[in-house]
Amino acid sequence: MDNCLFCKIIRGEIPSKKVYEDEYCYAFEDIAPVAPTHILFVPKEHLSGACEISSENSAVVGKIYEAIAKVAKQKGLDGGWRVVANNGADAGQTVFHLHFHLLGGRPLGVMCDNI
Asked: Would you call 99 a catalytic residue per the annotation?
């Protein structure tokens, strides 16, 4: 997608601190980290969010989780880590390209009291 921020990062049109790349995904450091380790994993194929995952493209999510596990191990997140994916404006999604936040490097606590 031409105007998508993450597509531009993947294409190298906007600089990023790349952490990982393979044929399925691109991962880079978040510019406003909320944890010592805060890395975004984005599929190279543009999907606006989790709402666009289907039987035809769902395999990419598995590949991204494989990459997340590999990077978490490389970063020494042995004490644990969290993956967050927001879908839609009401959930806090601000860039409408499917992406996963890898968070770790400190105790993260409970996200919601009613879970």
From this structure: yes
